[in-house]
Write the structure tokens for this entry.
Amino acid sequence: QVQLVESGGGLVQAGESLRLSCAASGRTFISSYTMGWFRQAPGKEREFVAAIKFGGISTYYADSVKGRFTISRDNAKNTVYLQMNSLKPADTAVYYCSAGSRPWIPHIATMQAGYDYWGQGTQVTVSS
């Protein structure tokens, strides 16, 4: 079992930055897991944001955040990060961290069904 706890959300103005963290705990270390970030805005479905392969070399991003967001991981700390720059009001959502044990396939990494564990989410609000 893996527990995921997100932090770092908050209220910022458009153009500013935030860094989200996802701390993993439990009997299984996340070093062998694909890690992902998803988000859900009010009245909308949860959508893929970014994913990173267990080794950290391969990453994948939604087109809407490409060039502005960066996903990274520190396996020694069992932590995954999402650096969000040039934030826009459209980025306002609850952001969820996820962990999956399936082999790395970018298409699968964009799907909620590709993940086994989820955090409770952290709110990000971007004002205009």
In short: Helices lie at 106-109. Residues 67 and 77 are 26 Å apart (CA to CA).
